[in-house]
Specification:
The complex is a heterodimer of chains A (373) and B (58). Chain A is mainly β and 373 residues long. Chain A is 5% helix and 40% strand. In chain A, strand 4 and strand 5 form a beta hairpin. The termini of chain A are far apart. With 58 residues, chain B is an alpha+beta fold. Chain B has a three-stranded antiparallel β-sheet. In chain B, a hairpin with a 2-residue loop joins strand 2 and strand 3. Classes of the chains: A mainly beta (373), B alpha+beta (58). At the A-B interface, strand 17, strand 20 and strand 21 of A face strand 2, strand 3 and helix 1 of B. Strand 17 of chain A pairs antiparallel with strand 3 of chain B.
Amino acid sequence: MAITRAFKNGVNYDDFNALKHPVFQNGSMDICQRSTSVTGITSEQKLTDRWSLNIGSSGAFTFTIGTGPGTFGLNKCIKLDCTTANASGSDADANMYITIPLEGQDVQLFRKGTSDAKAFTVSFFVKSNKTGTGIVEIWDRDNDRILSKTYTIDSADTWERKCINYTMETSNALDNDNAKSLMVGWWIESGADFDGGTLGTSWAGRTDANRAVGQTLNMASSTDNEFLLTGCMMVPGTFTTETIPDFVNETFAENLARCQRYCFLMKASTTYTRYTHGIANSTEQAEGVVSLPVAMRAGPTLTTSGTAAEFACGDGAALVNCDAVPIVGNASTVNPCFQDVFWPTAGSLTQTEPYALQGGNNTNTFLRFESEI
Amino acid sequence: MAIESAKYYKDKSTNTNVAIIFVDNGVTKSVGVNSTDNIDYQAIQAWVDAGNTITAAD
């Protein structure tokens, strides 16, 4: 008999394959409904869908969609370039980490807080001009507890796959709801406030000074620095780079749909794009419903492309300019697959007549519904 | 997230508040008044708890 794989903690390859979907959404970084390029980042910033950058006192960075390693079809990545350096660690409160937040109901499989708490592995592809030690932190937001582990970038400018092993604790269960329960964060810059203690390699209440101890990547140290990340996955079981299953590439449609639970972008491709239709229920406003492609996590926030002048009420023949940007109404509490929207005007609509919500003479209008955590 | 101002939006047909229009880091956004699980809604409530006021609708 030739043993080709062995697994600890009673978790095997079949268990992993039984997962209906990867735990992380968009671990391939293929979906980016917001900006695909952002310059001058000095504070919290959304990156690819579901992934964001927490940054403070760490210079300035540019985010772009970079080229992935190609392995397993990973053709895209988060790419961060330092554009304004900050002498690493000179500011005690320097902090910088890429992170993904997860709903409690989506991480119950790890059985935190039970006698059957699972071991798990976080795996990812990383590339940087810097070699050194990075930190991947697991943050239980329900109980404000932290577990951090290190990894090493061995070769500069080379894609490397990393695997880090963790265990869930048998106490402090995660809430089984739609709120933020777990965050996974890749630390790449830190000051004494975050690395001045002892690395929290066992579950413990959050002490900031213990979160990034030993981190030496220090991405803010030079404008030569860049950090690329993709192929992120979190799986039950204890794996090495030799035994970890292949990255599971969802179809683009599957990946997009999972991201749309948190962000749904309606973007114009032409001038006067019709976003939805409704009816004037007064002379001052039309009201309609936007069908959401999937049930969003919670009633969404609506952000639009900007000014009232970019939107109009259309009756099929003429346009009445909006005097405010479109506004969401109450969210459905029964079936969150649709969202009430108002588009106000100065008061020249014909009540009970149908109207379209249209973009103006502008190809860049958008409606963005967000329900992040 | 940095809430700068917030104002209710009233449905003109029912004359009831249905949304909060708010400015976050210079960007105007809106959220339903019943979206209690929404993190922006929660941030607005924290902003109110800190002593700020949501302006009444026009």
